[in-house]
Design a protein that fits this description.
Number of domains: 1
Distance between the termini: 22 Å
Oligomer: single chain
Bound molecules: flavin mononucleotide
Largest sheet: 8 strands, parallel, barrel
Radius of gyration: 19 Å
Order of helices and strands: EEEHEHEEEHEHHEHEHEHEHHH
Helix content: 25-40%
CATH architecture: Alpha-Beta Barrel
CATH class: Alpha Beta
CATH superfamily: Aldolase class I
Structural class: alpha/beta
Shape: globular
Number of helices: 11
Strand order of the largest sheet: 3-4-5-8-9-10-11-12
Number of strands: 12
Strand content: 15-25%
Amino acid sequence: MSLLLSPVEIAGLSLKNRVVMPPMCMYEVKAEDGLPTAFHHAHYGARAIGGVGLIIQEATAVEPDGRLSKYDLGIWTDEQAQALAKLVSELKAFGSKVGIQLSHGGRKAKDAELPLAPTALAFNQDYKVPQEMTLEDIERVQSAFVAAAARAAQAGYDMIEIHGAHGYLVNQFLEPLTNQRTDAYGGSLENRFRFLKEIIEGVKAVFTGPVWVRLSVTAYDETGQQNTLQDYQQIAKWLEELGVACLDISTGGVMDTRPNIPIYGGYQAGFSAKIKEVVSIPVTAVGLLNSPELGEYILQNGQADLIQVGRGLIRNVNWLAEAAEVLHDHDFQVYNASYQRGQVK
Ligand SMILES: Cc1cc2nc3c(=O)[nH]c(=O)nc-3n(C[C@H](O)[C@H](O)[C@H](O)COP(=O)(O)O)c2cc1C
């Protein structure tokens, strides 16, 4: 049996395999009310039937102006949480574990009337200049993350991921390029980490399941002003000390610059391995892991503990069944006997 498709108890979760569907915004909330639609039930349901071990729901906003676009899902009201609870119970019934990525776009919340950010610097000329957050704003947004986590607990999610990557609000606090504050939330790495630290402390007080954090460990910046990989190794150690269950390692999105690292299958896995060197909690790999053999290689070599397949799962809901064929994994079970008949070619 392959590692990729074998069950595992990891990061506080009992998973039927090591394939994770990473958060991917679908911009399908056409009513702009943050509520899931028939699309979300079909979209996630298909991946659950397809056998994904853990589905992490797309970036879900903790407050309306934290949405990356007005078509995003939200969890800032009880009504939204109740609607999401139905989705969660359906997906679990198909055998997947289900998580939610809690998110705030900060200066990249394109549809916000007055986006907030640690510092009043626009992402680029197509984005509004954000308003620098006051200490009250900071406390309010942190409370919104905590309230969202409490609703996520009620909705039945198995895990929460805090979106600390891709240049959204938490990432904006972490990076000196976007955080030029002179108070307790800016300056040293420790100060820039404070916003995330306090969110995690609050979230962990209301959500007893595993809390993960997604980080962008390079901002793709060449001015010499970005956090270094060593800075992110330090952040990873702090997150482990705070009781974070798993680190989801990604890159980019902070500045309006194109990747300055080579892009190839598994291009971010080396970063996962570097973070794994300094922590003992599990670490995931993501980024063009379309080949099951590549995912298996990364697991077998201990570069990461879980493999996330994003666009591959958008293209192919049967990614896992096909992975089983590629890996000659005869133990993998498709959803039911009728689906088994579909395997005969
Ligand atoms: C359509 C789309 C939407 C995405 N939305 C999110 C998101 O909501 N949150 C996030 O952290 N990353 C998001 N991402 C990044 C993915 O989670 C993943 O890290 C990236 O696509 C690389 O993995 P892949 O090569 O397997 O697709 C998105 C990617 C795509 C393609």
